[in-house]
UniProtKB/TrEMBL annotation:
Catalyzed chemical reaction(s): (2S,3S)-2-methylcitrate = 2-methyl-cis-aconitate + H2O
Organism from which the protein derives: Microbacterium laevaniformans
A Pfam family matched in the record: MmgE_PrpD_N
Enzyme Commission (EC) number: 4.2.1.79
Record-linked SUPFAM superfamilies: 2-methylcitrate dehydratase PrpD
Gene: prpD
GO molecular function annotations of the record: 2-methylcitrate dehydratase activity
Entry protein name: 2-methylcitrate dehydratase
Alphabetical keyword list: Lyase
């Protein structure tokens, strides 16, 4: 049975007991050696495949190339065998925190892997790179890796259910640092006191503003979660050496809640599994069929449908206006409510276009689909008819869609909305969608075959067929893998792929 932990700010003289602090409660969950249930194992396998798919598709992109170059400039640390770097041969290793960095950027670069949205939003698959890197470095088997990933998902998603960061313009990776540290704690079988110190440091070092996802969005967007994973690895190392961290990190009078979140009078109710309760949070997350912000997924599917039933909508001369009535979050983060002129700029970066629902809806309406590369090309964004249609699209907050966005009932939770299209002939077209087609409650929920198909589609240009089959065979046997097989849970690029892109030089 889930336990709800009441979290509030405590004055220093109150001396909140360590075992009553949220960081320690998180650590107790991580230290609980509960078995991972079979349906959770199957979903973890899906997400390992999903992460590898989107990482493969990003191997030659600038941010990934830079992060990989940084990682490869660092030797394997003395405490283990090192960890693999996506794209590089299995025998090429680096220190685990740098592998977490490089692989974390590769996974996040295209914004194309799993998501969970509640009080906060998240990509819980970001937990996998740092946990896997440590697993390879220290030498653990697949069963231990599965338990650790289950913890990472559980902790991040439980924090996301309860504590809003974006309301205070704090980047969502502040929930990822603690969850990755907790997952690594599970992996290594650490005691709760040690894990709690790592959780506290990981949070302390990963609180940053949301400017990384505002205005002209930079390449740091993909690096931010990788940085949180890297900090989690380093936090665990430091805690294992007996070093302590700011305490209480959440509840202290100068802590995160008091000064970065809801303030000294704040209170949160954080749900965590009870002792002995299985970690099942991953089953509430959902992946992406399309390479775009999650709130855009359902809108792409609706635009794809309208393209087929009303092809005339692709012509801006026939459209007077398009209004997407949607949730508060969609309106203010990726919609016109953000008041970011960059969201309507044909010369905006890929990262910015990925966070512009007016652009995404316009392109999907014209093309009848979405492509992770072609839909973001500068020539595609600058097409005259697209710009004309794009600039006729706005968003509006709708109270009912906001309520459904925040609903705890999975049967009514929704991330879409209602579109109202006014045509130049005076007629109006109205349609709506609640969840993406690939969502568990959508028209075509993703299953294992869909994850495998996504991997094959994205990996085929950069991996040889034998490598695709080798990785899939390992991933689908994840809980049975030996230590040596875990160390080969990597994707190796075909000859010449990585050499074809310049490796930027830096300080290291």
């Amino acid at each position: 049975m889930t336990v709800i932990h009441h979290v509030r700010v405590h004055r220093s003289e109150e001396n909140l007991a360590r075992e009553d602090q949220l960081a320690h409660k998180i650590a107790e969950v991580a230290a609980d050696p509960v078995a991972v249930e079979s349906d959770v194992v199957e979903m973890i396998i899906n997400r390992v495949i999903d992460n590898a798919a989107v990482a493969a598709a990003s191997l030659t992109r600038g941010p990934v190339t830079a992060a990989r170059a940084q990682a490869l400039d660092h030797p394997v640390s003395r405490g283990g065998a090192g960890a693999t770097v996506f794209g590089e041969p299995n025998e090429v290793r680096t220190s685990p925190e740098w592998a977490a960095w490089a692989n974390g950027v590769a996974v996040r670069e295209l914004d194309y892997h799993d998501t969970f949205l509640a009080a906060e939003y998240s990509h819980p698959g970001d937990n996998i790179p740092p946990i896997l890197a440590v697993a390879q470095h220290v030498g653990v088997d697949g069963a231990a890796l599965v338990r650790a990933i289950a913890t990472g998902y559980e902790i991040q998603m439980d924090l996301v259910r309860a504590i809003s960061l974006h309301k205070h313009k704090i980047d969502h990776v502040a929930h990822l640092g603690p969850s990755a540290a907790a997952g690594i704690g599970t992996l290594l079988g650490l005691d709760a006191d040690t894990i709690a110190q790592a959780v506290a440091q990981a949070l302390h070092t990963t609180t940053a503003t949301r400017q990384s996802r505002k205005g002209e969005i930079s390449t740091w967007k993909a690096h931010a979660p990788a940085f949180a994973g890297k900090m989690a690895v380093e936090a665990v190392d430091r805690a294992m050496r007996g070093q302590t961290s700011p305490s209480p990190i959440y509840e202290g009078e100068d802590g995160v809640v008091a000064w970065m979140l809801d303030g000294k009078d704040a209170a949160y109710e954080v749900p965590l599994p009870a002792p002995g309760e299985p970690k099942r949070a991953i089953l509430d997350s959902y992946t992406k069929e399309h390479s775009a912000e999650y709130q855009a997924q359902a809108w792409i599917d609706l635009a794809r449908k309208l393209h087929g039933t009303h092809p005339e909508l692709a012509d801006p001369a026939k459209v007077e206006s398009i209004v997407l009535h949607t949730s508060h979050h969609t309106h203010y983060v990726i919609g016109s409510g953000a008041n970011d002129p960059q969201k309507y700029d044909p010369q905006a970066s890929r990262e910015t276009l990925d966070h512009s629902i007016p652009y995404i809806f316009a392109v999907a309406l014209q093309d009848g689909g979405w492509h992770h590369v072609d839909s973001y090309l500068p020539a595609r964004a600058a097409r005259e008819d697209t710009v004309a249609l794009w600039h006729k699209i706005t968003t509006a907050e709708d109270a009912e869609w906001t309520r459904r966005y925040h609903s705890e009932d999975p049967d009514e939770k929704a991330f879409g909305g209602r579109v109202e299209i006014r045509l130049t002939d005076g007629s109006t077209l109205v349609d709506e969608i609640a969840v993406a087609d690939a969502h568990p409650l959508g028209a075509r929920p993703f299953a294992r075959a869909d994850y495998v198909r996504k991997f094959r589609l994205l990996a085929e240009p950069v991996l040889v067929p034998a490598e695709i089959e080798r990785f899939l065979a390992l991933a689908e046997r994840l809980p049975e893998l030996t230590v040596d097989e875990v160390r080969e849970l990597n994707i190796v690029a075909r000859a010449g792929v990585l050499a074809a892109v310049a490796s930027p030089k830096g300080l290291f």
